[in-house]
Design goal:
five-stranded antiparallel beta sheet, alpha+beta
């Protein structure tokens, strides 16, 4: 059953603000990407859906795209799925950013209804990219962007 996984993801969501204060984003992503034996994607998705429902109901858990994306990245990576953590700025609003996770180049649990320029992609896949509702192209590494 996915309930124990959902509980772990919920606790991770609670811990993320503290973890981001003591680790760089690059360091935190490295820690979160430790892989274990593969778990069926349906089980991982069910655990995430449950944990996100709990997190949105619990007012003590930050419910932002950054925290959702970090928790999603951690769970997918830990259960053997090649997840990519992405942060991008909205093209027409450069002061507005969004974070999400991709599986096989497709955003998981997100509808990208605006044009974005990716500023962080972990693990890195290239040098720069623009993302629209049609999909992505490659971006700088976290450590390159965060210097």
């Amino acid at each position: 059953m996915s309930a124990p996984r959902a509980v772990r993801v919920f606790w991770l969501r609670l811990a993320l603000p503290t973890l981001l204060r003591i680790h760089s984003l690059d360091g935190l992503l490295s820690r979160l990407s430790r892989r274990r034996a593969p778990t069926p994607l349906a089980e991982v998705s069910a655990a995430l859906t449950t944990a996100e429902r709990w997190a949105s109901a619990a007012r003590v858990v930050p419910d932002t795209c950054l925290y959702r994306a970090l928790a999603r990245f951690a769970l997918f990576a830990r259960h053997g799925h090649e997840a990519t953590f992405v942060v991008a700025v909205v093209d027409e609003e450069p002061d507005t950013a969004h974070a999400w996770v991709e599986l096989e180049g497709v955003p998981w649990g997100e509808v990208l209804d605006r044009a974005y320029t990716v500023i962080i992609r972990y693990p890195a896949q290239g040098s720069s990219e623009t993302v629209s509702s049609n999909g992505p192209a490659a971006a700088p590494t976290v450590s390159e962007t965060m210097k």
